[in-house]
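Lab notebook, bench 4. The sequencing result for the construct came back, and we need a structural model before the next group meeting so we can plan mutations. Quick request posted to the team channel:

Model the 3D structure of this chain.
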Amino acid sequence: MTATTDFTGVLLRPGDPGYEAARRVESDTVDRRPALIARCATADDVAAALRLARSAGLPVTVRAGGHGPDGFAIADDALVIDLTPMRGVAVDARRRRARVQGGATWRDLDAATSPQALAVTGARIPSVGVAGFMLGSGSGWLERRHGLAADSLHAATVVTAGGEVVTASRREHPALFWALRGGGPSFGIVVELELGLHPVGSAVLGGLLAWPAARAGDVAAVYTAVMDAAPDDLGGGLTLLSAPAAPFIPPALHGAPLVAVVVLWTGAPAAVGALLAPLRDLAPAVDSVRPMPYAVVQGMFESREHVTARVHGEGGFLTALPDAAVTALAALQERKPAPLGSLLLQPLGGAFARVPEGATPLTQRDAPWAWQAGAAWFDAAADGAVRAWMGDVRTALAPWTRGVAYPNFIPDADPARLRAAYRPEDWARLRAIRADWDPDGVLAAGHAIPLP
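Done. Here's the predicted structure in token form:
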């Protein structure tokens, strides 16, 4: 197999220098050997790689950030269109817009927007890729204030399955634009995003209030009452975790199970004291809430050193957050068979809830709470135990579960769960749009919407 003359990137085959690194993603559970990895530098490279795959009869996968624990970005004997060299970010502070290439991560984007005191709802782990995160929803700390990342998309540059480069927006190809805002990756390869940015100031109020995990029920009761009356500017969530060896954690608590409230306040500093007072009345063992740049809040839960591990994560929506559920989850977190990871219970509402049903493919806008569970471990012998533990988490939350998670939180290729994640009328619309833009089913990896 030879490179096409119009491809300016790098083609990697098994045995080539760089191939082994390029086939790795953030989860060590994924160990696959593509036939060819096309490291693209331009949209034209992406189109050329697609033509090459089709002429050679190779299945296609797309690697953007490469962070997804599902491993959909890499497949055995496939051609991987690798966007990671395309990581440029250009910020127009006057228009409050950012143009973000398809391989950029949230660390890249935050580094460009923070000096302008601007931001958009981003991943809670900065090494996550912007494009994949947004195509599957985009849940983050700013969700109550500014909605999902997909809600801030203004336009996308897309290489279609046929190799055409088009712009999708409300004015150009509006059906494609609608599908990209939460419908997943099977409508085209997104090589650039235009995102709306929002003022966050030079500093927000952020950090943790934390207690020993035995206080989980008490903390949950107060936190739910606080969030019931909270304005959109108060984001964050309730998390169950093992205390990191961080400077703001007392040494005696390092490694101990904690229940913590993640605080992100984007409003006037003087207004937050009364909101947090009921939580501080519970005498937290840790109170690290202080002014800090928004990007620091974004990076609170990512290791300072890059570590790869075996990773699994899931999530969903809840009808309520009773104390009994939190107490049960605290017990599960304490016996989690993985050294890393946490459980997050996130209040919704605000801007997230004000997007009408059908405006994007993403539903459940009236859900009051969401949950996310993540585990990271290093021994393959624990794979089964971690999966079983995740099943116990789902069982514990079953009495309050509603609907099906967004695609980003469906960890395996599961057509039934994917279909249930959308309203029937939106599912039918997504299938019709897929048929318009990829009638031959070229972009079939992962959570691909099936053709009619």
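The longest helix spans residues 383-397.
Will bring this to the meeting.
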